[in-house]
Structures are given as structure tokens and as C-alpha cells.
Design a protein that fits this description.
Length: 147
């Protein structure tokens, strides 16, 4: 699939609007090794556009795990749930930080946490190091965590 072209101005707007945080796991871009990318919240193949309201700032981990997915199934419930949508949802309604673990509070939170790998071992370790250095959650991440 062809990569949509996002101009510099749009990229800057998305990054600034996100306060330079991954809008999914809330890590600050400055604390990532690989930086952040622009995510199509609803991927192009599912009908999403490249307008600002469908774009999110996203760390490379969240971006790679999410790919073009828009949700997942909870097998116990035999039901599909969409991912957390940074423009539609409040982070604090779907997730809660418990030490270094991001705990899901809803079905949307559960599928997002699972597929985006929020609590993979290396990410827990990274988050714990940032917590120890008082870099996570940042003041702007704390604002998003409160509902
Ligand atoms: Zn992330």
C-alpha cells in the first residue's frame, strides 16, 4: 500500500498537539530511542483519512504493533472491540497506570493494551527506568491520565 504523504506542517501540528508524547502509551518522545511517528488512527485501508483528526503521535513500538489494525477480538467474549482512539476517547477512562504497568479498564483498553504491547517485558523495564528518573509520567501525561 502506498504511504500517504503528510506534509511537514501537518506533522508539526500533530506532534505539538500531542505535546510530543506517544498518544497511546504516553511516553515522551525525548525519552524514546527511536522517536515518534505519525499514526493513522483508522488506517487508510479501513477508510481513514490523512486529516489531522485521524492522526496521532505515536512511539515506534506502539506504531509497529498497531500496524493497520483498528481493533481486536476478546476471545472469551467472542466480540470485536476497536482500539483506543486518541481523538474520541479519554486515556484515563480506558487505562490506569499501576507502577510500571498500564492496566486496561475497559474492553477498548484491553484490546489496545494487548495488541500495542504496552506491557511487554522490555517496555515495562523501560517505563520503570523512566519512573525511577521521574520522567514518566510527565506532567502532560498525567493530565491525559486524569479523566
Ligand atoms: Zn507508545
Amino acid at each position: 500500500m502506498e504511504r500517504p504523504y503528510l506534509n511537514k506542517e501537518l506533522r508539526r501540528l500533530v506532534a505539538k498537539r500531542a505535546d510530543y508524547l506517544c498518544e497511546y502509551c504516553l511516553i515522551s518522545e525525548q525519552d524514546t530511542i527511536l522517536g515518534c511517528a505519525i499514526d493513522h488512527i483508522i488506517s487508510i485501508k479501513h477508510g481513514g483519512s490523512s486529516s489531522a483528526d485521524n492522526l496521532a503521535y505515536c512511539c515506534v513500538y506502539c506504531n509497529r504493533f498497531k500496524g493497520s489494525d483498528i481493533g481486536s477480538i476478546i476471545l472469551d467474549k467472542k466480540e470485536f472491540f476497536r482500539f483506543y482512539h486518541p481523538r474520541w476517547d479519554n486515556w484515563g477512562e480506558h487505562f490506569k497506570l499501576n507502577n510500571s504497568t498500564i492496566e486496561p479498564l475497559t474492553n477498548i483498553g484491553q484490546v489496545t493494551t494487548a495488541i500495542l504491547g504496552f506491557n511487554d517485558q522490555t517496555r515495562l523495564l523501560e517505563r520503570q527506568l523512566l519512573i525511577n528518573k521521574k520522567k514518566y509520567p510527565s506532567p502532560s501525561a498525567i493530565r491525559r491520565m486524569s479523566t
